[in-house]
Amino acid sequence: MKKILSLLTILTVLASCTPTPENVQQSNVLPPIYPDYCDVTIPQNIAPLNFLLRADCEAIEVKAGDITINARGNEAVFDIDDWKALLQQSADKSIEVTVSALINGQWTAYRPFTWQVVSDKVDPYLTYRLIEPDYEIWNNVQIQQRCVENFDVNALGHYEKLENRCMNCHTFANQNPQLSMMYVRGPGGGAILNENGILSKLNIPGSVYFGFSPTGRYITYSTQKIIPAFHSDPSKRLEVYDSESNVCVADMQEHRIFTSPLLSDSLKFETFPTFSPDGKYIYYCAADSVSLPHDIKQLQYSLVRIAFDEKSGTIGTQVDTLYHQRSVCHPRVSPDGQYILYTVADYGTFPIWHPEADLQMMNLQTGKIDTLGIVNSAKSDTYHSWSSNSRWFVFASKRDDGLYGKPYFCYIDKHGKAHKPFCLPQAHPSFYDNNLKSFNAPELGKGKVPFDVEDVAKAMKKESVTFK
């Protein structure tokens, strides 16, 4: 009992030592918090938006709804249970947030901002590659999965277990954690297919970008020879282009690969294929071939589609062009089939080092294009994926420093309006300041995948399933 009383006494003394606001000076500017969580829309199930104040302050006070944080220093960290209770009672409502800071002996209260909480939840799991943002674009790659409702992280692929091989992104079938695939490159590599936690290695040669059909029977993928080259423009650092590329389809039941002359034209580059949610189309990007690398700035990819019959496994006979004004990458159709989201850049097929790279969203019913001004930044905004309810998407953005990519979440309301995106929250507000890895290829999933690093390492030792 004496020990308990002593502990309570210590905690009381520590709490009393934290300064609280008095003689507060009002400011009409928003607080310089990082990440920038001012006036963002968030899902009801997101982890606490912990942040720090970019100021040399002695103490900070944050009020959000009925939560009050008083802390020394410049960091605001929410108790996760209090946070969940706050979001639960604030669904489809706004939370006003006020930040006050003690700087040079003077308390300043910044202009309040809001968090709009929506009951449309985001898929709870996010997979991504962690990659060093240098010229060795494949070195020391990891694939991780994070629960966005809290801060739990588990590894799916790790370079130390896979002989430092390059690993392509981990892709779900319809955001389903029981059916997914990742590609491990190099000798003895292959596509690692996850079916209900059972992993198999598929010999699908040269596959880079891929997507599942709605039933999961077919995978459409691109084969390409990728050439990295240093860029003459210092703002772009590195240019990557395809010396050749085609689109194919793999039948997962009959273990056969097929294509069409329209998808493997020797005078064109075809890449980034993805199925429509109803399986009736394959959307992809296509460009007329040019002399590379000399004419790289003339390399323009259009957004196109071709019909597909999932029942018979046949490809259509006509290619329709949907957009051809800039160079398009990474098309993804929303699960409800209403929108297609894609990246546009001035040229080429590797936009992560293009600061002009932005996201655009096309309404597939009307053809209207939203340039997503509230979403994009002055730096690269690229690879993206949808939540299963079509109300959220996640994308990789280098908006902070042009070097390190981070996952940002954007809400699309029932009217198709995009809201200001927010960065993936972390347990420690200074995480991104200290992190030396770039988040790459974020993918949303409805649940936790039933395998880990050790399972992938074991699957790599298996005999490959051969496709003909």
Automatic annotation (TrEMBL):
Residues 1-15 form the signal peptide. Pfam families: PD40 (PF07676). InterPro entries: 6-blade_b-propeller_TolB-like (IPR011042), WD40 (IPR011659). It comes from Xylanibacter ruminicola (Prevotella ruminicola). Keywords: Signal. The keyword S-adenosyl-L-methionine does not apply. This is WD40-like Beta Propeller Repeat. Coiled coil: none annotated. PROSITE patterns: PROKAR_LIPOPROTEIN.
